[in-house]
């Protein structure tokens, strides 16, 4: 039986492929979902990818993950920089939680340099394009195996 993992995506990530391809690449959101599912299967993970523009929905998903002890890969999008509600929900985690970013926030606008999620995450991976998700899934698989 494979371990269930949630890959949670915040605002505007559903627009991958059309949103600033010079920053976020040309792969569509459907392409991201497929890549995560394929790699998850290789790693023995059952990956469910979700995206929302709603902070409340994201908080609910983090509560769901905490209650079920489900590992999480999260790209909070713009919520990264100011959502204390999401930070508090992520702090309730009961399994590994890896924060990911497609671009490197530290090479972008100053307001992107602060993450309220990072302090409560198992780790953060940023700047490797969609490969950030792959690295996060591999890190989760390794953490789950070493438990």
Automatic annotation (TrEMBL):
Description of how the protein assembles with itself and partners: Homododecamer.
Family: Belongs to the type-II 3-dehydroquinase family.
Biological role stated in the UniProt entry: Catalyzes a trans-dehydration via an enolate intermediate.
Name of protein: 3-dehydroquinate dehydratase
Any one Gene Ontology molecular-function term assigned to this protein's record: 3-dehydroquinate dehydratase activity
InterPro entries, sorted: DHquinase_II (IPR001874), DHquinase_II_CS (IPR018509), DHquinase_II_sf (IPR036441)
Pathway: Metabolic intermediate biosynthesis; chorismate biosynthesis; chorismate from D-erythrose 4-phosphate and phosphoenolpyruvate: step 3/7
Active-site residues, Swiss-Prot/TrEMBL: 24 (proton acceptor), 101 (proton donor)
Keyword Lyase belongs to the record: yes
Catalytic activity line of the entry: 3-dehydroquinate = 3-dehydroshikimate + H2O
EC number(s) stated in the UniProt entry for this protein: 4.2.1.10
Source domain of life: Bacteria
Entry keywords, A to Z: Amino-acid biosynthesis, Aromatic amino acid biosynthesis, Lyase
Residues annotated as site: Transition state stabilizer: 19
Entry binding sites for substrate: 75, 81, 88, 102-103, 112
Pfam families per UniProt: DHquinase_II
């Amino acid at each position: 039986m494979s371990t269930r993992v949630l890959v949670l995506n915040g605002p505007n990530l559903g627009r991958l492929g059309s949103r600033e391809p010079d920053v976020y690449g040309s792969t569509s959101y459907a392409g991201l979902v497929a890549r995560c599912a394929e790699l998850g299967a290789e790693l023995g993970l059952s990956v469910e990818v979700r995206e929302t523009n709603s902070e409340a929905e994201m908080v609910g998903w983090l509560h769901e993950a905490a209650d079920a002890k489900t590992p999480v890969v999260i790209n909070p999008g713009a919520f990264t920089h100011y959502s204390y509600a999401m930070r508090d929900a992520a702090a309730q985690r009961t399994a590994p939680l890896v924060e990911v970013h497609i671009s490197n926030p530290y090479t972008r606008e100053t307001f992107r340099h602060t993450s309220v999620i990072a302090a409560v995450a198992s780790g953060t991976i940023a700047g490797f394009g969609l490969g950030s998700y792959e690295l996060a899934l591999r890190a989760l698989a390794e953490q789950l195996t070493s438990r």
